[in-house]
Amino acid sequence: MTKQHANWSPYDNNGGSCVAIAGADYCVIAADTRMSTGYNILTRDYSKISQLADKSVMASSGFQADVKALQKVLSARHLIYQHQHNKQMSCPAMAQLLSNTLYYKRFFPYYAFNVLGGLDSEGKGCVFTYDAVGSYERVGYSSQGSGSTLIMPFLDNQLKSPSPLLLPAKDAVTPLSEAEAVDLVKTVFASATERDIYTGDKVEIVILNASGIRREYMDLRKD
Amino acid sequence: MSPSLDLPPKGGFSFDLCRRNAMLENKGLKAPTFLKTGTTIVGLVFQDGVILGADTRATEGPIVADKNCEKIHYMAPNIYCCGAGTAADTEAVTDMVSSQLQLHRYHTGRESRVVTALTLLKRHLFNYQGHVSAALVLGGVDITGPHLHTIYPHGSTDTLPFATMGSGSLAAMSVFESKYKESLSRDEGIKLVVEAICAGIFNDLGSGSNVDVCVITKGHKEYLRNYLLPNPRTYANPKGFEFPKKIEVLLTKITPLKEKVEVIEGDAMEE
Asked: Active site located where (chain B) (predicted)?
């Protein structure tokens, strides 16, 4: 007699793609604004990006109810940190906090695929990429979500050297200028929209640098 | 010795491997997905004939496999058929019936009738008990007048003044139910069909890209491929991208195979 399985799932996938790229003195974080369920669109105008601290911005795709809950937990913990330490959390510190928060729910996970971007204490761009249960790594660029399989190989091609044995190694923080990186992100989303049904409508691009934070929007295909 | 694994002599599907497939699925192997057409297809009857419409996106799960495929299939000079469901099934079944209709035309010396195509399709689909996953909107004008039918994968049919099928059928039908009326003019009919397909394209994730339209009247047909292109690519980097032309060679090792193989002259290859 095989075990009876539940015919109700607590999870749903609202689709979408996120990308982050780290530069020498900036960080670009982007996500599309489409929220869907099954074959239907719930809204064309939903932000998947949340600013957790002065220099940390998180983009999350997956189940948006879990994403919203996660954002609330992190922002509450950040407020407590500010009260206790009289300063903002650095990006690497926030990265560790996010990892711990995710692993805390190891046996009933947040269905959230996150990418954290920001500036480290030296002012250099940093990007951290996560899985659903908190495994993370600092990288030069990353993508998550339904379009990530389409986006990641292209970023690897443009931002990574073919082999780590070749010098100068093109990995980690990209030598591209801020404008070039934003351009790359726009192209990457336009391409992902062509082939992934869950990505589209608009892309929200957040740029963090020494002068502060800037937001840009670009229209994508709405079909 | 009685033959136990003969192929069924009369054709049709052989279900011999179903037990093995079920066993593999239990072990965790995922079956390959089919290319489905996601799809919004519509048809309506207007004053002088019928108008068919379709989107042009073909999906494989969440990925767009073809951004501009053709879903309005030719059946006869006066009959066209839109297809939703598994792409291979809709292609195969419409090609097959189209050939049968041509032979029938030679045999009878007359123009094909829509009900003939209808019967040939529904008999075939019923025979395969729904395993041929083709949902069709068949329309045409023959000697008895304009006709529009829908055909479901299990073989049932409906005769309607306006019809929609596919994952975007609800979005398209909402437009038809609000705006359809009898005896529409050609331009009004095309406008309504385009509106219905666009509703599917923008509100259903399984449908997208462009609108194809086909207008059939007595003695004349117009296949308007890509009648509307409402989804151009939004951004392409004007400078283009550089792709490293070389593949980096990290290590070269050449092993002549001649030393490892025994070369026998003459008859080595003969059975």
From this structure: 39 (nucleophile)
Residue pairs between chains A and B whose CB atoms are closer than 8 Å: 72
The set of residues, in sequence order, having a beta carbon less than 8 Å from that of B241 and lying 6+ positions away, is A158, A187
In whole angstroms, give the CA distance from residue B36 to residue B33: 9
The single-letter code of the amino acid at B120 is L
- Tell me which residue of A170, A212, A158, A194 sits closest to A25, measured CA to CA: A212
Q: How far is CA B206 from the centre of its chain?
A: 13
**Residue B39 annotated to the active site:** yes
- Residues B129/B136, Cβ–Cβ less than 8 Å: no
C-alpha–C-alpha distance, residues A94 and A98, integer Å? 6
CA atoms within 13 A on the CB side of B185: 2
Instruction: Give the pTM.
Output: 0.84
- Nearest chain A residue to B248 by CA distance is A162
Element (H, E) at B203: helix B186-203
pLDDT of A135 reads 96
A154 and A161 in contact (C-beta within 8 Å)? Answer: no
Disruptive mutation site among A61, A197, A220 for chain B (greatest number of B CBs within 10 Å): A197
* Nearest chain B residue to A179, by CA: B237
Q: What does the angle CA B252 – CA B253 – CA B254 come to, to the nearest 5 degrees?
A: 120
* Predicted confidence (pLDDT) per residue in B10-27, tens digit: 666 777 788 888 888 888
Q: What is the ipTM of this complex?
A: 0.84
